User: What shape does this take?
Amino acid sequence: MHSILIVEDNPFQIELLYASLAEIYELYVAIDGNEALSILTRHSIDLILLDVVLPDIDGFSLIARIRDNPRLARIPVIFITSLNSVEEQQKGFEAGAVDYIAKPYNTVLVKSRIALHLALFDKQHSMEDLVAQRTLQLARSRNLTIQAMAYLAEARDAYTGGHLERVQRLSLCLAQQVARMRPAELDGRQVEAIHIASILHDLGKIRVPDAILNKPGHLTEEEFAVIKMHPQYGGEALKLVLAESEEDLFLTTAYQIIVAHHEKWDGSGYPAGLAGREIPLSARIVSVVDVYDALTSRRPYKEPYSHKEAMAIICGEMASSFDPEVLEALRAVEDSFDLITRTVVEA
Assistant: This one.
């Protein structure tokens, strides 16, 4: 059953509306604007019948306050009034009313108007739910495609079991802490974009020859030069897609991470030798995560470092490579890093 709030201070008019509508709808009654706002905060209301003339604040002021509240803004409001000037009606529509009903009431007309606007309200909600569901489906499809691309690249590297899952979870953990420390630079949408996009950081390795990628030992200078091309390779692949959707937050974030996660705060990184804040914040976050996971993972040429050893290396001899504020965030969540690393074991 739909719920209607009647905002009216005339007892006779209240009784008339109540007698006409009580059998059809769940009714709430307020005799002034403040009482109406109190009811709106405590109950779910589907439509408001609002008298223009009220004892405390007028109907125009009340609808303005309703429209300023995101939780209430979509509730249809029908003005009820004995003042039927064109100017007043225009003012009401400009304020956000969906209709006007003149006093004295024609109860048949009142019920018809209410039924019409509730039907439109329900239709709008249904369409919004459908759009939200479709958006969620598209997001899931996108994320599955991203995972497939990332695992295709990782599958060629025999020594990175569990790496992608750890990078995603660690990136989310660190990005959330950076956002808490620097909310002006990183919001919730950007944090989620970093979380999802981080899995693509080594996408370019798909173009690195297997003999180099899976060499059981240290690389020669020539081989390392080939490895150092993988950010560029990945960036080139994503740039073709990015050109078609330059304002897509996820694609932009993914591109930044792919091309810049090996850049260093002191300018000694690759491929572009960026330094400091020239490096996108998303890449500065993932670069710390990537190094941490590399240190704490087993490789043919080394045993995994412990969490404490990895933290000592990153915050000590390698500190100049990273954004000092990102390192501060890392220290704040290091227990979570340790837990994630021990939970997501190597395959």
Q: What stands out?
A: The two ends are 54 Å apart (CA to CA). Residues 182 and 325 are 9 Å apart (CA to CA). The chain has two domains: 3-128, 155-343. The first helix runs from residue 11 to 21.
